[in-house]
Design a protein that fits this description.
The protein is an alpha+beta fold and 315 residues long. Helix content is 43%, strand content 24%. It is built from eight helices and twelve strands. Helix 3 packs antiparallel against helix 5 (134-149) and helix 6 crosses helix 7. The radius of gyration is 51 Å and the shape is rod-shaped.
Amino acid sequence: MIVFDVVLVALVVCLIAAAVSVRVVRQFERGVVFRFGRVLPEIRQPGLVLLVPIADRLQKVNMQIITMPVPAQDGITRDNVTVRVDAVVYFSVVDPVRAGVDVQDYMSAIGQVAQTSLRSIIGKSDLDDLLSNRERLNQGMELMIDSPALDWGVHIERVEIKDVALPETMKRSMSRQAEAERERRARIITADGELQASEKLAQAAEVMTEHPAALQLRLLQTVVEVAAEKNSTLVLPFPVELLRFLERSTPPETTAKSTGAGASQPTEPAAGNAVPTLTIRAQGAALATSHEAAGSAQPQWGGLPTGCADPAWQP
């Protein structure tokens, strides 16, 4: 009975020692063993790891790519604009021994370096670079963080600037600038269209000048287009050539006599009418008074003769 108890106690002690000595390292982890406080150069790979009881201590290091958001940092750009920028850092451990020995907390160290680098990038860059040239800034920030991280056994995979927060006044100024730029482009496009249209119209006028029948065909086409709308009123343009033909066919006006006999005289006013009338002749589209006698030195006002004998005549 005593022997059985001893064997049972020994078995329990062995089980406890085995439980303490055996560790499981997962696939994405690596094990760093400290024996009496000194690190062993051998890195324990994934799987079962046997340790010496009481003497060994195992520290597991995660080898996955870690995503660390960088808190938003307030800064002033090189062109004196206050902005608020946040970013994200992707990194992984490449040397578990250095990550576990050379730095106390490598994740906290990477976070502090990332914040400092982000503020430095903001101060060295213009606002336009932060908004449109982020790829170059990401590469510069990655180099700034990766330089000290290599000494800690950490490799920076990628750095991304997520958002750039601008003041409301700056947003309004940028919107006005964009609106003015759009308006400028619209005016240039409109002016370019007018220029091209004028060139085409000039070419069309030259063709119609060489072929007068083309103008008549264009007139008939316009009439057809207007008539197709079922309008109650049809506007028919009068050919200019016909007006020119009538002008050439009209006999020249007889020259007025130098004695002034052809000058029109005001007629007698009608009963109850104090203003006399003048005989006015029309030639073509121009109107002229008949008071054009040669040698007349009397001044005129408003196209009507002055100094008439009738006392009721007033300009």
